């Protein structure tokens, strides 16, 4: 097995340690994991434990995008953060993601009609990447909401700070939902902006 370093050169010792622990399992063990939806908190992880007698090692969640009351409701975001802190304290590896709404519209949105609605046109991309435009300002506000939530994990403890740096966002870029507004051509530029904005806020 080849040891890999954290992609972030400023990764905390806790993040580096966690990466090393995961790498040490390579070829010998498998970590079980369970994704949960914002409204259900840890229901699916709890259900997996009831069925198998073992709690999943990896606890996954999403910051949501949908209307209040929906299983992916944006109204559950604070609950997701609170549960992530609780899960970490209980020994889970925490992984978070965010199904980001198209920056041409405001949250809440629906999955099929917004997130998977097809690529942005060239004008929208130009606006997205140009400070001072309405699209760029909206996208910045949306990213800042998530960054502020992640900042709570940093404040929650040094190891929490490590686990959220393993967060997976834009996870369906190469899947069947790649026809959404994410486009590989722009991925590096857009991801660098998101990364910079997260760490500016936290």
Structure write-up:
It is a single chain. This protein is mainly alpha-helical and 202 residues long. It has one domain (13-201): TIM Barrel (Alpha-Beta Barrel). It is 47% helix and 6% strand. The chain has helices spanning 13-24, 43-52, 77-89, 111-115, 122-128, 134-155, 158-164, 184-201; strands at residues 33-35, 58-62, 93-97. Strands 1-2-3 form a three-stranded parallel sheet. Helix 3 (77-89) links the parallel strand 2 and strand 3. Helix 1 packs across helix 7 and helix 6 (134-155) packs across helix 8. The longest helix is centred in the C-terminal third of the chain and has 22 residues, at 134-155.
Query: What's the level 1 CATH class?
Result: Alpha Beta
Distance between the termini: 34 Å
Number of helices: 8
CATH topology: TIM Barrel
Supply the helix-strand structural class: mainly alpha
Count the strands? 3
The amount of beta strand, in percent, is: 5-15%
Outline, from the CA principal axes?
Answer: globular
SSE string, helix = H, strand = E? HEHEHEHHHHH
At CATH level 2, the architecture is Alpha-Beta Barrel
Placed side by side, the strands forming the largest sheet appear as 1-2-3
* Count of all domains: 1
Main sheet attributes: strand count, strand direction, barrel closure: 3 strands, parallel
CATH superfamily: Glycosidases
Helical amount among residues, as a percent range?
40-55%
Q: What's the overall average pLDDT, rounded?
A: 81
Taking pLDDT < 50 over at least 5 consecutive residues as the criterion, the unreliable ranges are 161-171, 173-180, 182-187
- Rg over CA atoms: 17 Å
């Amino acid at each position: 097995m080849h040891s890999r370093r954290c992609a972030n050169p400023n990764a905390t010792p806790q993040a580096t340690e966690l990466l090393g622990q995961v790498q040490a399992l390579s070829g010998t063990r498998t970590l079980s994991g369970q994704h949960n939806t914002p409204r259900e908190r840890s229901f699916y992880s709890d259900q997996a434990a009831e069925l198998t007698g073992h709690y999943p090692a990896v606890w996954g969640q999403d910051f949501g995008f949908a209307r209040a009351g929906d299983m992916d409701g944006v109204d559950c975001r604070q609950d997701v953060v609170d549960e992530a802190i609780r899960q970490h304290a209980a020994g889970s590896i925490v992984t978070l993601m965010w199904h980001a709404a198209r920056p041409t519209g405001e949250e809440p949105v629906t999955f099929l009609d917004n997130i998977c609605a097809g690529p942005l046109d060239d004008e929208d991309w130009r606006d997205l990447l140009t400070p001072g435009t309405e699209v760029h300002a909206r996208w910045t506000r949306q990213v800042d909401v998530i960054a502020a939530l992640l900042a709570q994990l940093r404040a929650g403890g040094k190891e929490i700070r490590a686990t959220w740096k393993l967060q997976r966002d834009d996870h369906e870029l190469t899947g069947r939902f790649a026809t959404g507004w994410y486009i590989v051509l722009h991925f590096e530029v857009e991801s660098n902006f998101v990364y910079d904005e997260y760490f500016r806020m936290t």
